[in-house]
């Protein structure tokens, strides 16, 4: 790092989210190239060379960048529909529209989804994309390109479906792939785009959609493919009571046992939702170190229930936060999920002891990094880790009277982002994206939403 250009951030509160939850009331962070070089209390060290910028962060809290662990970007252009439905009826209502997406729509929707998260403090995003209609173009490439242009760190969970209406599934027949096509398309995406290096900006996971829309063989062969290629695995699990019933009727066992029977538990696996988990399910996740993407707003929006996050954490299950698709979480923001995770879990059995502010922040940072398999690189502020961090402005009307900045961030209103750095590069300044034109994205997403609505109506 000796010859690297340095950025010095000073006079800020710092929540490192390291193993000791180290915090500094007033401190500094030194970025050298794309790494965190040093941080601590008081002023930055004297005599630093190649300092190209000094930031006086008085009135700010610096945290690790937020890590999103579950999303469906394409849904950005179907927001505000089926707003009073449960999961199953919501899927029935929207699949006929989703089945008609194309590359241009997906690129625009990905830009909208990424922009909303990035300007709200997300530095690592993921997208579980599983709708690949025939003749729709290079959807994976469009999504990855949108993330690259915006400058966020990104995991594409390359999804798939092979159980359509004719097989008792929900998607239209032309919106699913064959078993062979899904596996081949997934392998090609991994080989073309996955970067296994420490500072990788793009990674790919193998991600069949859910028990409702995939065959057992796709699950089994998907797991074999992922482990042969050395990448992570993602799917939906235990989201609703209907899924529990479906698995018992079709497979003679609950979702967790079914996933274990197909090779889908392990430290290289994370699942979205996991709302309806009994004690033995949680024990199985803890034993195998299977991760969970907790999506509190979407679970509430679709009336799915309250995930047992405190019990998962107590058992040692890795848990991160997810926005989920923006057709079931229309805000599309992850920083609001810090607050919602805390509040919703306090409605559960543990009440006020369920989560505190620092546990919520950990879910959105280090917990997410664990779930994505990147806790050695991101998720906490420590020397040698990648320079993914956020400066939250905490001295405005919304937060200034709350003495503890972490409490203010989690319990208070959504805090403004003065600056967000990914890989040492600033991508947000004063709440606006520096890398893309937000207004152009807004126009594009509106146009593509209207175009998709017209196509769906004609069909």
How would you characterize this protein structure?
The chain is α/β, with parallel strands linked by helices and 459 residues long. It has 2 domains: 113 residues, Roll (Urease, subunit C, domain 1); 307 residues, Alpha-Beta Barrel (TIM Barrel), CATH 3.20.20. Helices cover 36% and strands 21% of the residues. The protein is built from 14 helices and 17 strands. The strands form 3 sheets. Strands 1, 2, 3, 4, 5, 14, 15, 16 and 17 form a 9-stranded mixed sheet that branches. A hairpin with a 2-residue loop joins β2 and β3. α2 packs parallel to α3, α2 crosses α14 and α11 crosses α12. It is globular, with a radius of gyration of 21 Å. The termini are far apart. The mean pLDDT is 96. Pfam families: Amidohydro_1. It comes from Streptomyces caeruleatus. Keywords: Hydrolase, Metal-binding, Zinc. This is Hydroxydechloroatrazine ethylaminohydrolase. One of its GO terms (molecular function) is deaminase activity.
How is the topology of this model organized?
Blueprint: E1 6-15, E2 23-32, E3 35-41, E4 51-56, E5 60-64, E6 66-67, H1 87-98, H2 103-118, E7 122-129, H3 139-150, E8 153-160, H4 179-193, E9 202-208, H5 216-229, E10 233-237, H6 241-251, H7 255-261, E11 269-273, H8 279-288, E12 291-294, H9 296-301, H10 309-315, E13 319-321, H11 335-345, H12 357-371, E14 389-393, H13 405-411, E15 417-422, E16 425-429, E17 432-433, H14 438-458
Parallel strand pairs: 1-4, 1-5, 6-7, 7-8, 8-9, 10-11, 11-12, 12-13
Antiparallel strand pairs: 1-2, 2-3, 5-14, 14-15, 15-16, 16-17
Helix pairs in contact: 2-3, 2-14, 4-5, 11-12, 12-13
Domain Amidohydrolase-related: 61-425
GO molecular function: deaminase activity; hydrolase activity, acting on carbon-nitrogen (but not peptide) bonds, in cyclic amidines; metal ion binding
Protein name: Hydroxydechloroatrazine ethylaminohydrolase
